[in-house]
Amino acid sequence: MTTAIIGTGNIGSRVARNLVQGGEPVVLAARDQSHAEALAAELGSLASSASVADAVSQADAVVMAVWLDTEKGLVSQLSAALVGKVVIDPTNPIGPDGHGGYTTTLPEGQSAASIVAALLPAGAYLVKAFGTLGADALGSAANRPDERAVLFYATDDDAGAETAERLISAAGFDPVKAGGIDAAGRLELMRGDLHQNGGLGGRLLNADEARAAL
Predict the structure, then answer these.
(1) Is residue 140 within a helix (H) or strand (E), and if so which, with residue range?
(2) Do 178 and 186 meet the contact criterion of CB atoms below 8 Å apart?
(3) In what helix (H) or strand (E) does residue 33 lie, and over which residues does it extend?
(4) Across the chain, which distance is largest between two alpha carbons, in Å?
(5) pLDDT in tens, 84-103
(6) 84 contacts: CB under 8 Å, gap ≥ 6
(7) How far apart are the C-alpha atoms of 113 and 196, rounded to whole Å?
(8) Do residues 89 and 32 lie in contact, with contact meaning Cβ atoms separated by under 8 Å?
(9) pTM above 0.70, yes or no
(10) Residue 56 in contact with residue 33, Cβ under 8 Å?
(11) Which 8-state DSSP code applies to residue 179?
(12) Is 107 helix (H, G, I), strand (E, B) or coil?
């Protein structure tokens, strides 16, 4: 399978690197396409770059590694092209708090994934994944030699779960399902109890610890 990664910032670039190291082909797209081209050249033969629309058309799974507002626009714009695709949402709904830090941008009880789910066309499969670790840990904790760290995911679909488990494993982590999309808020910063920099207080979990945390 091929995975499109839309956005080559902190999260997108690390997911791309991890997947290529795990033998998965990726196609990269970004607002500034020169960034996607440069990263693809760095990653080698398993990576290529394309426009957003072309990347989605080539892919089986699409990682939306962009801010939530950008993701909402892309989902609406690409709606027909996303039918039959697994759409992976790593987004954390945060914004500046006006005091040099960050705060959540959504009201209590709402998650980024629930917003994306409402916008996706019938026939697309949504997974919340790749956003439960900070960008540094997503890079440094992949393929730990002693015991793999966990990446949680959430989905309502068997196809989404199968794809999430394959990609998370290829990226160098152990996949643990937190539940359906109604559990996605647990995986999101700032309120999520299963986010590394939320309720987990910076900790990385192994598979046994992760299942206990559920």
Answers:
(1) helix 135-140
(2) yes
(3) helix 33-43
(4) 44
(5) 999 999 999 988 888 988 88
(6) 123, 124
(7) 18
(8) no
(9) yes
(10) no
(11) E
(12) coil
Q: Would you state the structure tokens that stand for residue 47, as one six-digit string?
A: 């990576």
Element (H, E) at 161: helix 158-170
The residue to which tokens 């945390």 are assigned: 213
State how far the Cα of 150 lies from the Cα of 209, in Å rounded to an integer. Answer: 9
Strand partners, 47: 26
Query: How many angstroms separate the CA atoms of 99 and 156, rounded?
Result: 37
For the segment 18-29, what is each residue's pLDDT rounded down to a tens digit? 999 999 999 999
Residue 74: per-residue pLDDT = 97
Tell me which residue of 106, 102, 132, 140 sits closest to 194, measured CA to CA.
132
- For strand 61-64 and strand 47-49, is the pairing parallel, antiparallel, or unpaired? unpaired
> Mean pLDDT per segment of 10 residues, for the chain of length 214 residues?
97 98 98 97 98 97 96 97 98 89 87 97 98 95 95 97 98 98 95 94 96 96
> How many angstroms separate the Cα of 14 from the Cα of each of 102, 111, 140, 191?
22, 23, 9, 23
Give which of 117, 136, 110 is closest to 196, Cα–Cα. Answer: 136
> What kind and span of H or E run contains 126?
strand 125-128
